[in-house]
Amino acid sequence: MKPSFLIALLTICFFSAKAQDNSKKIKEIKLDFANMELDVPGTLNGLSEGSLYRFVVENINLNLYEVSVNHGDTSYSKAIDPPSFNSPLLSVLPDLVEGIKKSSVEAPLAELTKQSFLAYAPADGPFKKMNNVDLRKIKAFEQLSNTEGKLLTLVNSITESEKSLNQIKTGLHLYRLYESGIDVSKPDFTIYQALDSMQNHIKELSNSRVAIINEGIEITRITEQYAGIISSDEAVKSHLNEVKTIYETIVDHIDKTLSAYDSEQINNLLENTVYTIGKRNSVYKSAPFQLNGEQAKLRYTIEPRDKKYNLQSYSSEILFPGKTKTFFTVGMAFYGATLSDEAYSISTETAVDGTITYQLVNEDLSKIEMGMAALLRGGKRLENKNLSLQFAFGPGVSITNKMRPRFLIGGGFSYGNKHRVALDTGLIIGEVNRLSQQVRKGGVNESTSQLTVSDLKAGGFLSLGYHFNL
Predict the structure, then answer these.
(1) Is the pLDDT at 116 greater than 50, yes or no?
(2) Cβ burial, residue 376 (10 Å; 0-12/13-18/19+)
(3) CB-CB neighbours of 185 under 10 Å
(4) Is this model's pTM higher than 0.70 or not?
(5) Pairing mode of beta strands 52-60, 369-381
(6) Which of 72, 85, 356, 391 stands 20 to 30 A from 243 (CA)?
(7) Do residues 57 and 192 both lie within one domain?
């Protein structure tokens, strides 16, 4: 096998494979949303039936807008909601606890101690030993006050944890606002850090609840141990009820808070933020579409995800492939050409002596030939959409004298949109009759039977025709 043939074969295979690969590529129609510039590549004009294309929107905030192409695409996130502060906030718990306390603990305790000492202390002698009832009252007050103090300490700890959770919640909302294009500072934490911090604070709340329950057990123990004192002394009884109410209030409050931050609630809180990350300035790509005809009409709509954003909607459509300026058509034409046959005849004259003289006579026929042609035309539209420049070639046949085949090649202009009138000019080639060299050199005599011979000649033509363009 010759090397040149092998190289030619490999070249053909390479370009064939490349053409097949290009046919599989997805053509992209790109819209720069930030600058409102549409880029329709010229390669779309080369799309054929079965080709794939897609719509791409660049520099768009998909947190604010949703894109629909021909039909509604799947929306992967909903409108950004403001943070909800309907969950219990333990930052208000100290106020609730203060509202429960009817009187300070120290005043009844001091008053009871003073009365007990005065009742048993003579003016001029040492204190007598206080009776057991008074000591039990003081101990009951002291233990209740100690329990109350621990509860109030836990309130402060719980409040700090709750404040931290609300700060994270607000930070997540600011994160969503930032990703939505609002001019706010981007929070300096990640979603993973927010989740980890929330879990730590919820763990602290759970530990605080265990400590509170332990204080509840202590309240039960005090109630049982000093049941007699509590039933007979209104001050101790009132203080016990106060501590119980504080305990129940804190337990109810912390239970509501923990339920507000269970796994489902945390997932809902983080979900919207997770979906917004990285879409502040992102790219939308539609699924590929297939061209199933000669032209496709791509409709797209870009709408705000929520009307409350007061953002503008955008909608348009693109028709492609566009009608190409180039064309190829076949049409009929009538032509006139400078090709023509030469016609001669022989005249005879008889002299007095009987001599016959032969003379060649030129019939001087028309030098214009008429005929019909089927021309293949290819060209391009000019700025005036109805006017186009073209080349033309094809077979023809003369109809003036004899029907003879002709070949025409040239160019010209066409006028019209689909139905076009064409005016062409150029070169026409065909056989014509010319005086034979024998006659030209030797003249004619009684034996001359053929005056002309066929010869291939070229001339000019001017044609007027019609062709139809899709």
Answers:
(1) no
(2) middle
(3) 8
(4) no
(5) unpaired
(6) 85
(7) no
